[in-house]
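User: Can you recover a sequence for this backbone? Please restate the input before giving your answer.

Assistant: Of course. Working from this structure:
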């Protein structure tokens, strides 16, 4: 039977989604599940919940818990990584506020911009430790990554280790949601009252999921690009095979102007529909940080609510603890989604056949005009021989150029942190579309390196 090691298992989102999806899998019955988290308290909650699910669902897993990944790597087949140097929300807020001191207002600060650089930089050391230990203990295992910034972390594993990496993200479903809103009448989709868009707002999430749930069985969307920056290259009606792109080009511009206004503008100006929705799309564009025109106001770009989300994280973990203690029903865990982890594991381990809407892999030509070896996102086929990207050809050159800039800044930033190379780190920020001044780039970098010195001591050498 297969062995699955989950690192960062103590997170509330993992416990609710990936853990329960793995333990529901009929194909993975009798497998070994090794849970790893440095936070012993969170690990204990998820471990006790896993044991309850294992018993009540008769999953027949062998489940162990470990506070260090080295104790759970020998002969493992799959490493699912959801690690995050914390405290997550507090650090993210700091990533946003430091550039503000130098006049740079990032649109989101998670995956792109200076915030994307430093967010990835903090995670380099722990991820490298894991994959280098994998090279000794389980060199043939797959590293399934959920940690953001997705492109940068997958690039780290791909170019600085010998481990096979795939990155999984659910952002493709935002594309399904927006297309569904535009074509609701033709597709017979009910749009719930109060839906404003696909932005990261916990109040909107149930409404968004209701639309996506209706859309996925009806639409076949193929998208390609980079994570959180991919583009719809085709959209068809699953029932009839009809090409729906011409109708989308008409109907989307008939929606109210307040619905994903940045997506609307980029779709109009570049001719392809961007997948991620305004919240993430804004991170990679060079027109979203001007202090004079204040585009974040024009396009109503909303920041992540760090305080609310930190509270929600604690609430979710408390809820899992109540489930683990037997004080709350586990019925809600019967419908969870692993965002692709279970599909990857089942079909590789047991030679299945699965088409997955979006996965991040090194570019082996699946997007012809993006750099070879860079991390790109396309559909994939999964079987016993591994994960195989669907080749989509060229992106339109203007879009490819936007993606290339992001890929170059990502690779420069990763190399800078691995090497402790200040010059490359500065070049990474100078090339970033958020930065418009050379002195400002240096000031931000110096402040970041001072503030987060404990995470990146290599820059003091």
């Amino acid at each position: 039977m297969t062995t699955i090691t989950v690192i960062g298992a103590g997170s509330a989102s993992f416990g609710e989604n990936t853990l329960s999806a793995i333990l529901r899998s009929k194909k993975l019955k009798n497998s070994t599940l090794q849970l790893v988290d440095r936070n012993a308290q969170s690990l204990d909650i998820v471990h006790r919940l896993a044991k309850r699910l294992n018993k009540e669902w008769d999953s027949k897993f062998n489940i162990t818990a470990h506070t260090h990944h080295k104790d759970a790597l020998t002969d493992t087949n799959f490493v699912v990584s959801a690690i995050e140097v914390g405290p997550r929300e507090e650090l993210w807020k700091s990533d946003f506020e430091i550039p503000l001191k130098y006049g740079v207002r990032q649109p989101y600060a998670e995956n792109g911009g200076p915030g994307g650089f430093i967010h990835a930089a903090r995670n380099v050391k722990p991820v490298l430790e894991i994959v280098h230990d994998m090279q000794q203990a389980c060199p043939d295992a797959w590293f399934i990554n959920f940690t953001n910034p997705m492109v940068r972390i997958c690039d780290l594993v791909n170019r600085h280790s010998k481990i096979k990496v795939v990155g999984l993200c659910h952002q493709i479903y935002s594309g399904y949601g927006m297309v569904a809103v535009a074509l609701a009448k033709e597709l017979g989709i009910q749009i719930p009252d109060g839906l404003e868009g696909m932005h990261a707002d916990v109040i909107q999430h149930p409404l968004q999921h209701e639309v996506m749930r209706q859309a996925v069985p009806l639409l076949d969307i193929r998208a390609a690009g980079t994570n959180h920056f991919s583009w719809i290259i085709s959209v068809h009606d699953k029932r009839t095979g009809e090409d729906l792109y011409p109708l989308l080009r008409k109907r989307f511009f008939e929606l109210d102007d307040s619905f994903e206004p940045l997506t609307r503008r980029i779709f109009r100006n570049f001719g392809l529909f961007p997948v991620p929705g305004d919240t993430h799309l804004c991170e990679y564009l060079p027109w979203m940080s001007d202090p004079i025109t204040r585009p974040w106001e024009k396009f109503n770009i909303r920041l992540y609510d760090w305080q609310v989300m930190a509270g929600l994280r604690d609430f979710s973990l408390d809820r899992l603890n109540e489930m683990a203690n037997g004080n709350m029903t586990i019925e809600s865990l019967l419908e969870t989604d692993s965002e692709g982890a279970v599909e990857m594991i089942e079909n590789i381990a047991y030679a299945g056949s699965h088409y997955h809407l979006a996965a991040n892999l090194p570019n082996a030509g699946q997007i012809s005009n993006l750099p070879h070896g860079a991390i790109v996102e396309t559909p994939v086929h999964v079987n016993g021989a591994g994960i195989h990207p669907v080749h989509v050809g060229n992106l339109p050159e203007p879009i490819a150029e936007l993606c290339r800039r992001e890929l170059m800044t990502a690779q420069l930033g990763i190399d800078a942190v691995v090497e402790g190379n200040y010059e490359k780190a500065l070049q990474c920020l100078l090339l970033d579309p958020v930065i418009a001044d050379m002195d400002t780039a240096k000031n931000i970098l110096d402040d970041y390196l001072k503030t987060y010195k404990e995470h990146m001591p290599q820059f003091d050498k």
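That completes the design. The chain has a mean pLDDT of 96.
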